[in-house]
């Protein structure tokens, strides 16, 4: 999640990126290549080294945001599948699990969520969000869902190593 980056919220609604943004993100992309991440962020650190996150947004609020983004992603995947598709039952089970998790979060009061997260959740559910959606492969959506879920829930739920 990029919630801690200054200026990210200011540009979320823009359709076109400024030339400076494009150049900087291209440079970032180059620096974030897998080989460089592996070398500089894994090989040069002790085994299982972790960095503690600055507590600008609570983990509970990030989990709340993750739930809304991920459940919407699963719903979008489900919308394109015919009932006889081999993935239909799998996505049906995912929807059932997200519905159950949604019941857990229904007890969450809006005042418990930081304003920045509440605004992003509203944006995820807004009708205008359709025009800003990017085409993404279904597997990539679920890969990201799992990766972020492990980061947000692994320690608090005491999952151990996966």
UniProtKB/TrEMBL annotation:
One of its GO terms (molecular function) is macrophage colony-stimulating factor receptor binding. Pfam families: IL34. GO terms for biological process: positive regulation of cell population proliferation; positive regulation of macrophage differentiation; positive regulation of monocyte differentiation. GO terms for cellular component: extracellular space. This is IL34 protein.
């Amino acid at each position: 999640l990029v919630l801690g980056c200054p200026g990210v919220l200011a540009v979320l609604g823009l359709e076109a990126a400024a030339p400076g943004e494009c150049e900087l993100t291209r440079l970032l992309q180059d620096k974030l290549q897998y080989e460089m991440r592996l070398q500089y962020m894994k090989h040069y650190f002790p085994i299982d080294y972790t960095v503690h996150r600055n507590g600008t947004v609570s983990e509970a609020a990030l989990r709340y945001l993750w739930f809304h983004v991920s459940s919407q992603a699963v719903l979008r995947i489900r919308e394109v599948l015919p009932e006889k598709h081999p993935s239909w039952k799998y996505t049906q089970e995912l929807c059932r699990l997200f519905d159950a998790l949604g019941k857990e979060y229904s007890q969450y009061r809006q005042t418990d969520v930081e304003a920045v997260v509440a605004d992003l959740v509203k944006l995820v559910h807004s009708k205008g969000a359709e025009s800003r959606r990017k085409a993404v492969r279904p597997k990539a959506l679920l890969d990201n869902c799992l990766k972020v879920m492990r980061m947000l829930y692994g320690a608090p739920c005491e999952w151990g190593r996966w």
